Amino acid sequence: MQQQRVESGSEHSGCAPRVLYVWDDDYPWDVRTEKVCAALTTHGSDVHLVARNTRWGPRTERLAEATVHRMTPWRALGKRVDGALAFPAFFNPRWVSLLAETIRAVKPDVLIVRDLPLCPTALNAGRRFGLPVILDMAENYPALVRSNWEAKRHTVLDYAVRNPAAVSAVERYCVQRVDRTLVVIEESGDRLVRDLGVPADRIDVVGNTPPRARAEHAPRPPRDASSPLEVAYLGIFEIPRGIGDVLEAMARLRGRAKVRLTLVGDGRDMTIFREQARRLALTDDEVSFRGFLVHDDALAVVAKADVGIVPHRAVEAWNTTIPNKLFDYMAAGLAVITSDAAPAARVVRTTGAGEVFRSGDASELADAIVRLADPARCAAAAAAGQRAIRDRYHWEQDASTLAAAVSLVARGRDVAVA
Question: For the whole model, what pTM was predicted?
Fold first, then answer.
């Protein structure tokens, strides 16, 4: 295919690069997408975002963090069929067309593509228009797909579009061709270097951290020892994320400690966990399923707890990525209990933010909860976690790394076409 050179949007005359971010779902909303786009806007970039449009929103919309360019809906087909035909597969001509027409319109300097599904599409567009491509690897996508297959929770559609072997092949193809890869934790970068041969100097860690201001409130006083210990889980409800282990631990705690569990979120395995809670005879006073809440409301509910839990199974997926919830808990002033999935366990141990239990072991998890039922111990862990957010694990630091990486890639484009 003949390269169609687009003129630079910023012309690199001292301006921050113009960025086009490729997001494979409806927008708004996604927490990392918003953070990345807002950070680049704050650093002076003109940021544009291409997105799916199953809700049939306006084709173009200016938001504070970016200008959104949505797929043109095929209204005559109805929302269900239109949405199915907008599936984010790299070979989908609707995505190829949307990306090409947006590039021609906004003349970006850099493409950033979120995760694997549309990375080959972005790479093809990069070659076609002479643009560098950055992969924003928010998770170990092949391992997450594999963990759902191993839990027997895959669907018929997964055989076609989320087959573990095919996804792994796409990842290998992409990471060896993008100009730079952003990962959320050091262990993810180590995997790319060790297993896929990506040069370490083409990888940047841009974590899923909160803004420092969220941790700049006074630590709460230790709770009254006579009150129940409030434990919270925030996130997606899937078997590999270990929610079943938390429910089993709650049943084991009867007679040992007064504990109340609040579960916030939804997911493909929610009915399994509700049935498990019924089978364990856990009452509404012991376990509360709050369901999906918008992000700010979810954080507000979690902030009322004493302990936040990260029960994810220590499989490849969670040994090479880290969930937002860990840092959200720490910023909110909660002590943390995590499984021994490598990144989360490392952060909790090195910061003193809480307790670590052996993945899949409900008895060890129950013991960890009992230890944090001690008000002084819980308060000390919570204060250590908050301090770590203020000192190290905050978005201001990650945003600077992000902006530097994007500028470096854009400067490389200048050299390449000089």
Answer: 0.90
